[in-house]
Amino acid sequence: MERSKENGLDPKMHDEPPHGDAPERGQWSGKFDFLMSMIAYAVGLGVGIGNVVISFMCIAYFCVIVSWALYYVIASFNFTFPWETCANYWNNRTNCITGKETIQELARIKASALRLKLTTQTSVEQYWENRVLQQSDDIAEFGGIQWELFGLMVVAWLIVYFALWKGITEARKFVYFCALFPYFLIAVLLIRGLTLPGAGTGIYYYLKPNITRLMGTQVWMDAGTQVFYSYGVGFGTLIALGSHNKFHHNCVRDAIAMCFINGSTSILAGFAIFSVLGYMSVTAGKDIADIVKPGVGLAFLVYPEVASNLPVMRQFFAVLFFLMITILGLDSQVCMVEGLFTAIEDRFPILRRHKKTSLGLTCLFFFLLSIPMVTKSGAHWLTIVDAYGASGYALLFVVFWEVVGIAHGIGN
């Protein structure tokens, strides 16, 4: 007893009931409350880690896509686009077509390709695979680094670092520009697209529903993933950015505004893109479904071909489009790095004293991690990371449990 008192502990404190104005300690109101709270805590902790992992995967390759866009921005300044002819050293003239051949020339090329068991490729495809990516046939064939993409990726990471190194208050200037300038670019592309022949065909294809496709699970998987990407849900970035607000900030208002603005922007961008696809469909004599090819590099296959066939101001619109892709990519990367770095700082508060150094090391780590994706087999690696690490089932799984954690944990 005496030892207890010497240590500042009085056993009577544990025997006597609370008295006076001291409030009683709260109790669980139901027998399942404690169990559900533990589950919600575990789910919430797992969701938080899952958000970080998803962001980790995206950050690892997003600057690679930015490097592709920068490559095309530079190439678009040429009077003759490097992707519109088959006379370059990277072209295989046996199976290369530009889309401007006569019927006889096209038949001859197809016959030559058939003899060699090759499929015909457009000059745009060969420029993308053989010049930009210098892509190997197999994922195991690294084939060395594509140094031009490597250098452009260095530039992209330097922009990301200097956009964030002074903190969120300085980063907002960069974000303002990246958020508003693409609207100007989309407006210009939309006006130009609507004036092209065949624009109505593309818009009709865009708005016409295909009920039979809705029966497939993959369509819903792709649509759900795209919605999460579009709104930034499941990456933890929005939560990290929101943590910089005041405690009583009206987040509901911001969420409604963001959903409305983002949804409207997506619809508007759809009109801009599909009006151009309609033009491609009419000029090439193909169905739009045959023009659009799936994959991460879709924009780098579709728009160069569009730019090659524009009657006037080809260079201007090509630079404008790829500059928009660059800015949007950098904006997304800056926000994701800020979200991840905020999570790291919250876990290790001491890093706030050395923000510039720790941020630099974080950017350096992800830069080194992305180097394999600018090798000759880099596109194969990027496709795998994108499909299985940062989208699809992984993203849907994390978002599902995030909803469960919020609705049945925080909500109760």
Brief summary of the model shown:
This protein is mostly helical. The protein has helices at 2-6, 12-15, 33-75, 103-115, 123-132, 147-164, 168-194, 199-207, 217-231, 237-242, 251-284, 288-291, 298-309, 314-347, 355-370, 378-388, 392-410; strands at 96-97, 121-122. Its main location: membrane.
Keywords:
412 residues; mainly alpha; two-stranded parallel ribbon; 17 helices; 2 strands; disordered N terminus; membrane; disulfide bond; Amino acid transporter transmembrane domain-containing protein; gamma-aminobutyric acid:sodium:chloride symporter activity
Indicate the proportion of strand residues.
under 5%
Query: SSE order, as H and E?
Result: HHHEHEHHHHHHHHHHHHH
**Through-space gap between termini:** 43 Å
Number of helices: 17
Number of domains: 1
**Helicity, in percent?**
55-70%
| Biggest sheet: strand arrangement | 1-2
Biggest pleated sheet: 2 strands, parallel
Low-confidence stretches: 1-20, 37-44
Question: How many whole angstroms does the radius of gyration measure?
Answer: 27 Å
Structural class: mainly alpha
Number of E-state strands? 2
Inertia-based shape = globular
Mean pLDDT: 79
Protein model, in words:
- Keywords: Disulfide bond, Membrane, Metal-binding, Sodium, Symport, Transmembrane, Transmembrane helix, Transport.
- One of its GO terms (molecular function) is metal ion binding.
- Its main location: membrane.
- It is found in: Membrane.
- This is Amino acid transporter transmembrane domain-containing protein.
- The structure is a single chain.
- With 412 residues, this protein is mainly α.
- It has one domain.
- It is built from 17 helices and two strands.
- The protein has a two-stranded parallel sheet.
- Helix 4 links the parallel strand 1 and strand 2.
- Helix 9 packs across helix 17.
- The protein starts with a helix and ends with a helix.
- The N terminus is likely disordered.
